[in-house]
Amino acid sequence: MQGKQKAKKGILPGIIAAGAVILLFFLIFGLSKWHHFLIAGLLALLAGWVVGVMAQGLDTSQTAPVQRKLPKTGDQTADGLISRGQEMLSRIRKENDLIADAPLSAQIDSISDTAERIFETVAEQPQKAYQLRRFMDYYMPTTLKMLEAFRRMEERAVEGEAANATRDQIRTAMDAVVRAFEKQLSTLHQEDYLDISTDIDVLEAMLRQDGLLGGGPVEP
Fold first, then answer.
1. 82 vs 77, 90, 120, 193, CA distance in Å?
2. Which residues of 2-17 are buried (b: 16+ CB within 10 A; e: fewer)?
3. What is the per-residue pLDDT across 135-169, written as a single tens digit (0 to 9) for each?
4. CB of 9 within 8 A of CB of 55?
5. If you write DSSP's letter for every residue of 5-51 in order, what string do you get?
6. DSSP conformational letter for 135
7. Number of H helices, E strands in the chain
8. Rounded to whole angstroms, how far apart are CA atoms 105 and 107?
9. CA distance readout (Å), 73 to 70, 136, 195
10. More confident residue, 161 or 54
11. pTM for this entry
């Protein structure tokens, strides 16, 4: 299936390249003699084949995300978690490169982006690594397992009621995974939100006490 899709992707660029070569040959040499047609045709076929082959390896529909290597934190638990998580994330992205289902691929992009931000958060605040135990032991591996299963069914062109039902289940499950990953990221920052809220409350109280926020200074 992937081979057919790649071949189709190379057809249009190949045709355009062949046409461009014929037009260029005509403008430079003209087509007044029979051998001009032969030479132009051969050059067009060669250019079309080369460009078509090159285009099969290109995907202009999206730019593949670059996975940034995060710096070591010095915390053994956090560094081990980040390393293992990024390895699984790399495998998830490779599966995505092999999956032609556009809606599912978009879900995987969202999951990958959120997971990357989760690991960046832990790299900045290693003490939060303990919050990711279930995320790392179950959510990430299960997500990868589902994508591997989907990709294998697509590669082998597995059809039938059971296979189609499994595909639909995976797509539905990915919706839940997207929300779960976003929730996990939000949970990691929950303490930060509380700290900021507390700081704002203290700041406003001090401003009122010093008469800088209206109402005058608070009487002792």
1. 9, 12, 8, 23
2. eeeeeeebbeebbeeb
3. 999 999 999 999 999 999 999 999 999 999 999 99
4. yes
5. HHHHHHHHHHHHHHHHHHHHHHHHH-S-SHHHHHHHHHHHHHHHHHH
6. I
7. 8, 0
8. 5
9. 9, 18, 23
10. 161
11. 0.61
